[in-house]
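Can't paste images in this forum, so I'm doing it all in text. The chain is below; anyone willing to post the predicted structure tokens underneath?
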Amino acid sequence: MPAPSRYPIPADRARAEVVIDRSRFVCTLAPAATPDAAQAVLHEVQAEFPGATHHCWAYVAGAPGSTSRIGLSDDGEPHGTAGRPMLTVLLHSNVGEIVAVVTRFYGGVKLGTGGLARAYADAVNVTLGRLLTHEKVEYGALTVTVAYAQFSAVQHLLPSFEAKALSEVFAEGVTLQLRAPLERVADLRAAIGNATHGQAAFADDATAVE
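Text version of the structure:
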């Protein structure tokens, strides 16, 4: 299944803290479009809390639920008690391109493996409740040439497909470079073809653009 071309990502960082048996778990959520970006957030949090017992982390540097670019670390906690439950929460959060760092300050009471796993997962879940997101949209480009008499009809189609003209060149006909959400480019192309009675001349197939 192809990756979605639009999905929620963090709009900014979010932070929350849970306290369990005197241990403090401070979770930081941040945007992370790449593994390097996730590591940069980790290093910043480590520098902010140098006296912490652990800095456990997990990231999903792709679309929500995608496992193509993920990472995790228990940072000295018992194997599977921190990074894995954190990653599981992120993978089911419906948010992409996100990193979680949970900073633990040990409170003197051992929580056991089950208790640790719940604590790290809870810290991420609580912080997700404070996270603001916005939609990431992958766009595609479409270049088409139409007759002057058809130009207005094509212009009127664009809003229905969330499309905009990046350039318009007026010569023997009108050549438009269009941008639209990638998932809508094929339908836009078909609609332009219908509106121009098959007379529109399209350039190469759509390619992803910023």
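The two ends are 22 Å apart (CA to CA). The first helix runs from residue 35 to 48.
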